[in-house]
Structures are given as structure tokens and as C-alpha cells.
Amino acid sequence: MNQQEGYADDIVKGFVIWSMVWGLVAVLVGVFISFQIAFPQLNFPPYLTYGRLRPIHTNAGIFGWGIGSFMAFFIYITQRLTRTSLWSPGLAKAQLWLFNIVIALAAVTLAMGMNRSKEYAELEWPVASLVVVLWVIFAVNIVMTIVKRREEQMYISLWYILATLVGVAVLYLVNNASIPVSLTKSYSAYAGANDANVQWWYGHNAVAMVLTTPPLAIFYYFLPKTTGVPIYSHRMGVIAFWSLIFMYLWTGAHHLLWAPVPDWVQTLAMGFSVMLIAPSWAAVFNGYFSMNGQWHQMRENYLVKFLIFGITFYGMQTLQGPSQSIRTFSAFIHFTDWVPGHVHMGTLGWVSLVLFAAIYYTIPRLYHTEIYSVGLANVHFWLVLTGQLIFSITMWIAGVQQAAMLNATNPDGSLHYSFIETMVELYPYWHMRAVGGVIYLAGLLVFLYNIYQTITGGKAQAAAQRA
Amino acid sequence: MDSASIYYLGVTLLLFLIFAVIVVRTYSRKHKAKGEEPKFRMMDDDKPKKEDNSEK
Question: Where is this region: Disordered (chain B) (predicted)?
Fold first, then answer.
């Protein structure tokens, strides 16, 4: 525990560093599998095939980089917003160890082919059980810190943090209910359409409770801290929060349009998905209005650039997502490359840009130093922005072309193109996507170098002061 | 209308009512100053409060 500040910040350092390690793994594997699609000869069975590496990529990205960073910033933010120290620093230390053990076990077991074959819930039951223990430790520590807070009114970030803790717990327990048949194999407790419905209730709400509410908590905290001006409207933030929470959990079945689940379930999911535009854009407007009179900071403050582009990607994502939930649009783009374009706008754009800003903000403060190079941070920004845009735009174009070809029919009703013809047309886009991934990776390496130099500079400074 | 439908309708109405109460309370004139207060307080110094200075 960092006694000087009174907050348990050493554990924040640990989570930030390890999340960056897993983030690098996620992007490295992501770039490699994008090359595997473009050049299938790069598949090396049995361990280094696309089928096994793809879940490692998503788990390392969403859970290693995403959850790891969220754990860091939830601990950092909660202490400051409650004006009290962490309930149990010892428990947090155990949490850091368990977190890394779980992510490492996930990588190894998935590479070995142990997989429940459920999107974002691939881990077999022994590892999944460890995740439950990890989450309970985390949730208890944060909730108890909030309980003993010294601020009566809770700032909006704390609401999003609590929603994440509760939401993930409920989703994870329900979707992971399964019947083990051996140490490495289990079967889902549900069957058929029910299984699909539960899976996509979980799958889409993992996007809600892992990739939406935590970055919003972080955005709402770090934007005002960075600009030096409070957010535009706290009350608007509260209303947007509650409407998001009321609506999000009903939308999962929009992944099952045209599937054998009841029609009313599909329509309900579609309706609530479209309505989600309102709370999502309330957060976007809150961010933009907070910049009123501060837009010059987009040129002068590199952190603002990350945060405002991040919330802009969130806005684009939350227009695209509801549009995709409409039956006719869904029928057109589902199962095409449009979808990875959409998903990566969220993960590489929204989530990661906000996390980069949060790390740039906190690391110099945690190590009592200055950022090593603002110039390199700007290079990092432009590289990841360029890489992300190349990735998403090529995939959107590829998706539309693929959909058009798959839907083209002859006058007699037969398909105009064979499946292999549609695949051949996609290769140029897959090459461009791989290039976009390499550019993003280059940006990430610049970021890691900058943070490494900042940390070592801070340590050297501290050593000099002690001497 | 069977009992399940009545139950679902009841839950829907209840959730809607809860949300309406939250909106009304949040945007009531009486609650305005208090509702906006946290955004100013979070800008304060990052140091934790001392035990004897507890305001909770």
C-alpha cells in the first residue's frame, strides 16, 4: 500500500502492467490470425491454427487487456471517489495473482483445444470456476470500499462500476451453468434454442457489462480530470445510466433474428436495441457538451484527443449496433466481414482509446514523474487511429460485397455466385486488414515503449531522491 | 390472458414505474443542486479524507 497517498496504488500498478502485457499478446495473436486468413498456409496444426488462436485472441483482448485494466482503474477510481482507501489491499494482491493465473490457464487450455464452443465463454469448467472466485474477491473488495465511503453522493462512475460487478456475475453464472463429464469436458445445462438464447443473452451483455459500462466509468472519471472542467450534466449521466441498464439486458436475441426462437423475443430484442441509441448518445452528448469552451484542448492536450475520439467511436458503434439489429439489415450483414469491422471499432477504437488515456494519466502520477514523451504519445495516437480505420473500413466494404454476392440470384432463383467465388473476392480486403493490424501493433509498441520509459524514469528519480 | 402473460405485463409495468420515479426524482427542482454536486466534488484533491473529518 502506498502510504504517502493513503491509497492502495501499488496494486493498481500491477494490474496496469499486466493488462498491457495481455493486451500485447491479444494484438500479436490478432495480427497473426489476420495473416492466417489472408495466407492459410500460416496455419500450423494442431496448436497454431486459426480455430485455436482466435479464442485466445478474444480472451486475451477482452479479459486480459480489458478486464485487467478495468480492475486497475476500478481500484484507482473507487478509492478516490469514495475518498477512502481500499477495503483490503491483501485481497487485491491475491486477486492480481489469480487474474494472471486464470488468463495464463485460459491461453494454455484453449491452445490445447479445451473449449466449450460458446462465444466469449469458451473456458472449460475448472478455469471458469476460478473466474467466479476471482470475480467474488474483486466485487467484495470494491463494494466494501464503496460501503465505507466518505462521500454521501455517489459520482456516476461508481454506478457504472457497481453495474459491472453485478451484471457480469449474473451473466457469467447463468451462461456457464454446465454438466462436467471429466476434468476437461462439460456440456451446457441448456439445449437447443434455449441454449442459443442464453448464450446470446450472455454474449451481447458481455459487450454491455464488460465493454460498455467499465469504459464509461473510466471515461466519466478521466475526462473531467484531464480537461480540468466538470462533466456537463451529472443528472443526465444518472438517467442515461438507468435507461441503459433497464434496456440492455433485453437485447441479446437480436443475434438470433431468423432463428427458431419465438418471434416476440426477436422483436422485443430488436425494439430495445433501437431504443438503446438514446442512453448511449446521452453519454456521447454529455462528453461533447463537457468540452464546451474546451475544444482547443483537442490540439493542446493529447489525453483529450484519446478520450474524445474514444467517445466518438462509442457513438458510431451505438448507431451501427442498433441499425444492425433491424431484421432486414441483420439478414444482409450477419455472417459477413461487416461484423469484425463493427466489433473492432468498439474494441480498438472505443475501449482501447479510453484505456490508453487512463494509463497515460495514471502512470506518471503513480510513479511521481512526467510522461516520457508527449510526441511519442501523439505518434501512438495517429498509428492506432490509422490502423483501426483501415481495419474497420476494409471489413465494412468486404462485408457489403460479400453480402451482395451471397444474396445475388439468377432469374430462376438459383444463387448467382458459388461460395468459393465470394471468398476469392475478399482476399484484397483481408490483406489490407492485416496491414491495418500491423499499423495498430506498431502504435501499441510505441505506447509500451513510452510507458516503460516513464516508469523507469520515475523509478530512477525516486532512487536519486533517496540517495 | 394467462397468468404468465399477466406476470410479464406486471413486471414490465413495475420496471417502467421504477424508471419513471428515477427520472422524476433526478430532474425535480428540489434535487437539482444535490444531483449535480458529485461532478464538482470529484474534481477535488485526490487525497483521502482523514478519519476525524468524516462527512458521510
Answer: 29-56
* Contact flag A239-B46 (C-beta cutoff 8 Å): no
pLDDT tens readout for residues A176-209: 999 999 999 999 999 999 999 999 999 999 999 9
What is the rounded CA–CA span in Å between residue A233 and residue B36?
7
Q: A interface mutation test: which of B16, B18, B24, B42 has the most A CBs within 10 A?
A: B42
Nearest to A220 by CA among A209, A208, A232, A210: A232
Q: How far apart are CA A266 and CA A269, in angstroms?
A: 5
Q: What's the mean pLDDT in A206-227?
A: 96
Cβ-defined contact of B35 to A7 (cutoff 8 Å) = no
Q: How confident is the model at residue B48 (pLDDT cuts 50, 70, 90)?
A: confident
Q: Which residues between 233 and 272 in chain A have a beta carbon less than 8 angstroms from any beta carbon of chain B?
A: 233-235, 238-239, 242-243, 246
pLDDT reported for residue A463: 85
Residues 6+ apart with CB under 8 A from A289: A232, A233
The complex's ipTM works out to 0.89
Q: Which of A80, A83, A243 sits opposite B19 (nearest CB)?
A: A243
Phi-psi label, residue A178: left if phi above 0, alpha if psi -120 to 50, beta otherwise? beta
Residues A200-209: pLDDT tens digits?
999 999 999 9
Residue in chain B lying closest to A158 (CA): B38
Q: Which residues of A touch B56 (CB under 8 A)?
A: 149-152
Residue B45, helix vs strand vs coil:
coil
First to last CA, chain A: 22
For A2, other C-beta atoms within 10 Å of its C-beta total: 16
Q: How confident is the model at residue A225 (pLDDT cuts 50, 70, 90)?
A: very high
Distance from CA of A421 to the nearest CA of B (A): 48
Q: For residue A276, which of A326, A347, A202 has the smallest C-alpha distance?
A: A326
